[in-house]
Task: inverse folding
């Protein structure tokens, strides 16, 4: 799209006429640069007359939103880390219980093997005697 030249050879007019032409050119430039939706916000800014107040308000709002989001993120992260630590301790307790059960079962199995060997020896001896 070709942009029309914004330079005009203005005849000698009064000061008010020059300001009106410059203001009209600025409005035309805003229409070319900004989409239709943002033009409403530009019109509202012109009506309020203070863009610094709007920018300061939105900046404060953004900082507040960032701070609240940051605090929520930290809280959720702390809760998740606490839950993971709890799960680690629970798992460690379960593993300790299972390992102690395995050790006791190992001892029982060894005793059963000894008894089995003794019984087999006794049976072998009794068969030999018969």
Result:
């Amino acid at each position: 799209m070709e942009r029309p030249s914004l330079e005009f050879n203005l005849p000698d007019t009064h000061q008010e006429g020059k300001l009106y032409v410059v203001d009209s050119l600025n409005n035309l430039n805003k229409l070319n640069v900004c989409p239709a939706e943002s033009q409403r916000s530009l019109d509202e800014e012109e009506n309020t007359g203070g863009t610094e107040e709007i920018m300061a308000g939105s900046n404060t709002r953004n900082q507040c939103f960032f701070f609240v989001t940051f605090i929520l993120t930290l809280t959720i992260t702390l809760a998740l880390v606490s839950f993971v630590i709890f799960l680690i301790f629970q798992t460690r307790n379960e593993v300790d219980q299972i390992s102690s059960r395995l050790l006791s079962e190992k001892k029982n199995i060894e005793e059963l093997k000894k008894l089995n060997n003794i019984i087999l020896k006794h049976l072998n001896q009794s068969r030999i005697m018969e």
Observations:
- The CA atoms of residues 30 and 124 lie 109 Å apart.
- The chain is about 85% helix and 0% strand.
- The chain has a mean pLDDT of 78.
- The helical segments are 15-33, 36-48, 51-129.
